[in-house]
Amino acid sequence: MRLGTLGAVLVGMAGCGGGGGYGGPGGMPGGDPNMPMTATFSSIQTHVFTPICSACHAGAAAPQGLKLDAANSYMMLVNVASAEVPSIKRVAPGDSANSYIVQKIEGHAAVGARMPFGGPYLDATTIGLIRQWIDNGAPR
Question: Cβ distance 48 to 20 under 8 Å?
């Protein structure tokens, strides 16, 4: 990924990411990695962004400046143009089909590699919950 998009940031960064979207360390206050994932931002942060995406998308070296750690991910995703395809928002509230993050995690974005780069990729249930959160308006 060129960083500006969830997927683009990790292109060329093999070894980053992985996992099926469940478990891992908690990323948001109140987020419990031992609880089942739900279609909420806090749960997605806890189960996906923190343990999987922030392996590469964190700190000063985050690709394209896209930081997906708990302190930064929401403001860097929701209603923010993708760096790879600026005409598409990373997360377009209410429109998962036209959200670049979904295109990247499903592997059909016009630019860059599927995320997490090099796999293992998120399972259909996890992607469905991310889509549901976006289609519900991507509330914080």
Answer: no
